[in-house]
Write a structure and sequence with these properties.
There is one protein chain. By secondary structure, the chain is mainly beta. The protein is about 5% helix and about 45% strand. The chain is globular and about 60 Å long.
């Protein structure tokens, strides 16, 4: 699928991913089957079908239908417009939302899920013991960018992060997060992806229906692979079906606050 400033490619020999690349060269190999965890467990993908395509005058919809351990049915949707790509999903079932992920998740029968043993030092308290990072057990997206710009205000004035770092935009604050990030909360729910010395950014903006912003934070989770996460902390109930907020991806200006205005 080709837009004015991007190309999205799906290959049948790589069923769980799509490749999204913008004209600037910024992009990613995106994991389709985002995990939608509940307060009673993590969400593991059981099966994912090949996508259906629905084309209208102003958009092409790429719709993947799957099934997970927590949800009877899940629909993952890429809405491809001339300048932007929107991604979101709908789950069918019942439960309390915990961590709602984008472009990252768990797979049932993934051999890594059985590799739980790792030498550790217990320490004086359980919370100080070594815990294997959750990334060790997840399937993530592959970055085609070097750095992230965050509009979160913190005491260290740190705005640029490397692709392997994590950063957070949240309603509450933490005085240990770069000297404290409670000065203005929340900042706009927007991350910008770019190359070092690049000519433009690609935005990962959050689009939420009015009344649907019952989450506490919007997190970029870095590492060898990356993903995004909304923290609902178990207070949002699903009974029947639920549609996630959407991620708005578009190539935008190199000036960060022009990019913010575009978002």
């Amino acid at each position: 699928i080709k837009g004015n400033s991007y190309e999205l490619v799906y290959r049948e020999d790589d069923l769980l991913f799509v490749n999204l690349t913008f004209g600037s060269g910024v992009g990613a190999k995106l994991f389709v089957a985002s995990g939608c965890d509940r307060d009673d467990g993590i969400d593991e993908l059981i099966e994912l079908g090949v996508p259906a395509i629905d084309q209208s005058d102003d958009a092409v919809m790429l719709v993947f239908t799957g099934r997970t351990t927590l949800w009877e049915r899940v629909e993952y949707v890429f809405e491809c417009r001339p300048e932007t790509v929107l991604y979101g999903y709908k789950v069918y079932g019942k439960g309390q939302l915990e961590e709602v992920r984008f472009f990252e998740g768990f797979r049932q029968n993934d051999p890594r899920m059985e590799q739980y043993f790792y030498p550790y030092f217990c320490g004086p308290k359980r919370e100080l013991a070594y815990h294997r990072p959750v990334k060790d057990f997840m399937t993530s997206s592959e970055p085609g960018f070097d750095q992230i710009f965050s509009f979160c205000i913190n005491s260290s004035d740190k705005k640029i992060f490397q692709y392997y770092e994590s950063c957070d935009i949240r309603v509450n604050g933490d005085r240990h997060y770069f000297g404290g990030d409670w000065l203005a909360t929340p900042s706009p729910f927007l991350y910008l992806l770019g190359k070092k010395g690049g000519s433009s950014w690609v935005s990962l903006g959050l689009a939420v229906q009015p009344g649907g912003n019952s989450f506490m934070g919007y997190k970029y989770q870095g590492g060898e692979g990356f993903g995004l996460m909304l923290d609902y902390t178990g207070y949002t109930e699903v009974d029947g079906e639920w549609e996630s907020p959407r991620i708005v991806m578009q190539e935008t200006d190199k000036e960060e606050y022009v990019a913010l205005d575009n978002y």
